[in-house]
From TrEMBL, chain A:
Gene3D superfamilies: MetI-like (1.10.3720.10). Keywords: Cell membrane, Membrane, Transmembrane, Transmembrane helix, Transport. Signal peptide: none annotated. PROSITE patterns: ABC_TM1 (PS50928). Pfam families: BPD_transp_1 (PF00528). Residues 1-22 are annotated as: Disordered. Belongs to the binding-protein-dependent transport system permease family. This is NitT/TauT family transport system permease protein. It comes from the Bacteria.
From TrEMBL, chain B:
Keywords: ATP-binding, Nucleotide-binding, Transport. InterPro entries: AAA+_ATPase, ABC_transporter-like_ATP-bd, ABC_transporter_ATP-bind, P-loop_NTPase. Residues 3-234 form the ABC transporter domain. This is NitT/TauT family transport system ATP-binding protein. The keyword ATP-binding applies. One of its GO terms (molecular function) is ATP binding. Residues 255-270 have a biased composition (Polar residues). Residues 251-270 are annotated as: Disordered. The keyword Cytoplasm does not apply. Transmembrane segments: none annotated.
């Protein structure tokens, strides 16, 4: 049979096209603008500090950061916070993905589980803290539990949405190609909902991180939130700044890692 | 008979009302026949195809394939959808291998068969590309290769070229006939394009809406292979006019025969 060469086929090989787009997006200008913006922000901060607002100057914060790193406090706090958030987030996601799939796949399970999820979704995880502390004491358990809850709720809804939104035509296409329920689930529903799950994981991670810091503000002996709370008692503004910046940077780094995973796993999507 | 549709009726609940998508439709299709089904929207042509595919069940009557009533989809009936329905996370090759994998074919066999059909539809260069990198015409060719790969004896095509531009459409029609002449199958091809219906088929089934029913059957008694010469021939024009009138003047035979009145907006929309 004659090969039909479409305009697109003749015009460019697929990889070239994709490559071109990536290059255009990752151009140097936005990066430069980002850097300029950060520089300006620090300059404004510095100016405000010098103008007599009760802010520490950037060098004071850097000096404090070096001290805290030097005596190991920052390292321990970061480790404590990260451990909590990662355990809570991992448990939350691990529970949310199967529950979300079951809800999307079986109407019965959806009917049984949905009211609880909808209810707990309207209760901020932080509002659970008093209850969790009473029931689980002041150790790690209540903190990890609220983080788990935050991550779980964000991720379960979006996994469920992903399963519900799987294109019927794709399921029909799999059926006419001979796939049975198990095959359709593993080979169509799971990959088709991956983008939703990853978005849910990102939202869940953000939510877990926010909950963590708040949980540590209330009851902890270690961690970034605790350190800031403690510094507040001593009017130690540079330490509070170090804590804030660490939280921001760590949150950003974790989000980037998930974003990279998302790009890698869902690069097949038409739009991004 | 390869396919036998026997007094199939299909009704849907539309709110409180019942909508009759198919009303006592009967149709026989012989082995290796290429039939096209054309008609206004709402005439039940897609419903008929879905019943044969096993994706929907008739309310009454039955559909037989090789003398056996259809129950659920099966590998002997390949379906090609208008929206391509390629798995976007799989490359062209993996898409074509999908049905072979379900059938339990080994890795080497899968690869070989997939390659054969990818080459057959002219996508060899794009075997490892993802669907998002392909044009509409290439996507549909990939879907055709995917359907062919599981070696169905019947191909059910639901407006497969409906979303393509006119040029690509003509090319794909010729290519489809080409593929069909190399690998004979019984084909049921749904379209709303009268030219396409006549060009491809050895029999055109015209359907009417409300209720969905077979309105007319027009034999296209002209030999294959068909090419551009056929498309521009007077015989083609005559048949095309017949089908056109049958599709667009369903309010009465008389107006269809006179051939002067314009199609009313209600029936022309499809």
């Amino acid at each position: 049979m004659a090969v039909i060469s479409d305009q697109t086929a003749r015009g460019a090989k697929p990889r070239d096209r994709a490559g071109g787009r990536t290059r255009a997006r990752a151009g140097g200008l936005p990066l430069l603008l980002n850097a300029v913006s950060i520089g300006l922000g620090i300059a404004v901060w510095w100016a405000l500090a010098l103008a007599g607002l009760k802010l520490p100057t950037p060098p004071e914060v850097v000096a404090q950061a070096i001290t805290l790193i030097g005596n190991g406090t920052l390292g321990k706090d970061v480790l404590a916070s990260l451990t909590r958030v990662l355990i809570g987030f991992a448990l939350g996601t691990a529970a949310a993905v199967p529950v979300g799939f079951l809800m999307g796949w079986y109407a019965v399970i959806r009917g049984l589980v949905e009211p609880w999820i909808q209810f707990f979704r309207t209760v901020p995880p932080l509002a659970i803290i008093p209850l969790a502390i009473v029931l689980m004491g002041i150790g790690e358990a209540p903190k990890i539990f609220v983080i788990f809850l935050a991550a779980f709720l964000a991720c379960v809804i979006s996994t469920f949405q992903g399963v519900v939104n799987v294109d019927r035509t794709l399921i029909n296409a799999a059926r006419v190609l001979g796939a049975k329920d198990a095959g359709i689930f593993a080979r169509v529903v799971v990959p088709a909902s991956t983008p939703f799950i990853l978005v849910g994981m990102r939202v869940g991670l953000g939510s877990a991180w926010a909950t963590l810091v708040a949980a540590e503000l209330i009851a902890a002996q270690q961690g970034l939130g605790f350190r800031m709370q403690n510094a507040q008692l001593y009017y130690d503004l540079p330490t509070i700044f170090v804590g804030l910046i660490s939280i921001g940077i760590l949150g950003l780094l974790m989000d980037r890692v998930l974003l990279m995973a998302e790009r890698k796993l869902t690069g097949w999507q038409e739009r991004r | 008979m390869k396919i036998s549709v026997q007094s199939v009726t299909k009704t849907f609940a539309l709110g409180k009302d019942m909508f009759t998508a198919l009303d006592e439709v009967s149709l026989d299709i012989a082995d290796n026949e290429f039939i096209t089904v054309v008609g206004p929207s709402g005439c039940g042509k897609s419903t008929l195809l879905n019943i044969l595919a096993g994706l929907e069940e008739p309310t009454s009557g039955r559909a037989l394939v090789d003398g056996v009533p259809v129950s659920g989809p099966g590998p002997e009936r390949g379906v090609i959808f208008q929206q391509y329905a390629l798995f976007p996370w799989l490359t062209v090759r993996k898409n074509v291998e999908f049905g072979l994998k379900t059938a339990g074919a080994g890795k080497a066999e899968r690869r070989e068969r997939a390659q054969h059909f990818i080459d057959l539809v002219g996508l060899g260069e794009f075997a490892d590309a993802l669907p998002k990198m392909l044009s509409g015409g290439m996507r549909q060719r990939c879907a055709i290769a995917r359907a062919y790969a599981v070696n169905p004896s019947i191909l059910l095509m639901d407006e497969p070229f409906g979303a393509l531009d006119a040029l690509t459409r003509v090319k794909l029609q010729e290519q489809l006939l080409d593929t069909w002449s190399q690998e004979q199958r019984t084909v049921m091809f749904i379209t709303h394009d009268v030219d396409e219906a006549v060009f491809l088929a050895n029999r055109v089934i015209v359907m009417a809406a409300r209720p969905g029913r077979i309105y007319d059957v027009i034999d296209v008694d002209l030999p294959y292979p068909r090419s551009e010469d056929f498309r521009l021939s007077p015989e083609f024009a005559v048949l095309r006019n017949r089908v056109w009138h049958s599709v667009y003047h369903q309010d009465g035979r008389s107006s269809a025969d006179s051939g002067t009145s314009l199609p009313s907006p209600a029936t022309a929309r499809s």
